Every structure is written in C-alpha cells, then in structure tokens.
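Suppose a colleague, Dr. K., hands you the sequence of a protein chain of 212 amino acids and asks what its three-dimensional shape might be. Before reaching for any lab equipment, you can write down a predicted structure in token form. Begin with the sequence itself:
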Amino acid sequence: MSYQPHTPRFLTPPPPPAPPLPQRALHHSPQEPAPPVGTTTGPRDQETSELARRYELLRRLRVPTTASEDFDALARAMAERAGFLYGFVNLFLEKQTFVGLHQPPAESGYVIVGRTMSRDHGWCPEVMNRKKALPLPDVHASPRFSGNHVVDAVGIRAYFGAPLIHDSGTVLGTVCVIDPEKRPLSDARRIRDIVIDGGAQAMDRIARAAVR
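The predicted structure, expressed as tokens, is then:
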C-alpha cells in the first residue's frame, strides 16, 4: 500500500483544554438520583442510562474491558481476511475501548493507534446508532462520512463495521476494519460479510465467557 504518513500520530485525541471535537464521554455515577417519575429525559440522560446498562451487562457476562489476547486474535483474523491493515473489537464505554486490536508493526511507517478513542470519533458511533453493518468502501464518496477526525489522523479511505448486539437488545460495541486504501464496490459485500461474521464470533466468545 502506498500511504505513508509524514509523522505518525496516535488515534486518541489530544488532552484538554482543547479537544479536537466535542466530547460526549459520560461518567456514570451510581449516586446520581434517578429522575422523578414522569420527568422527560433528554439525549444525555438516555445515553447515561445506556452506558450503565452496558457496564452492568458486561460485568454479568464477565467480559474483559481491557486488552484481550482472544479479541486481538479475532481482530487480526478479520483484518487478514479482508486484506485490511487494521482490525478492532470495540466496546463503547466512557471511551471507545479496543479490547481487540490488530495494526501494522511499529516500524512499518503506518500510524500506530492506541487502545482508546473519543466516543465521537470514527464511524463506529454511526454503527451503534443504526444497529446494523456500515460498509464504506471509500469514505470520501459520501460527504456525510468524509469529514471525520480519523480520516485526517490516520488517512483512512475504507471502513467496514458491524454492531455487537446482545440477546437483550443492548448494543455493547462494534467490530470493524479500516485501511488507508479505498476498495472497489465489487468487493464491498464480501468485506461487509467478513465483519458481520466477526461480530457473530465476538458475541459467541462473549457468551462462552459468561458460562465459564
């Protein structure tokens, strides 16, 4: 692949006081009083509630919220099957947390990413909202998806992601692959099916962890 960044940068955003994008990360506190019955809740309240349910479900399922060799292997398998440089198993916590990560070696000259990223960055937030796969063979083909912090930070041209949905309906996160080279439309269905299958494998491993 021809993409070579001039200066490798980490995917995680710079520290305050000047974050590159508005931060939506929420810090749930169990001491916060519940809203009175009949009170209308806004988007922030709903997101806080969803985050709390996600944490509780992950706890009950005994799913690690830190780097996992098992999920790293799954991320690598997805990336290799798709022919992509990067693969992720991503839990949506206070930040997007890559419990599974595959990327080029440090000496490759490609951007080396960290294990966390703002909840606003990338295309996984869109996958979380739509609750179905998002194939982007060329992110610049759609104005809606071309303006993104990840495009500039990592030089990404192709993204394919799928949600991790528990039987309860709770969306735990996503799996995805990204690459600095766009893909032809003729290959989009094959790559989409790879990440959908990767999501199914991730949920199968999560289910097995719960019964161990």
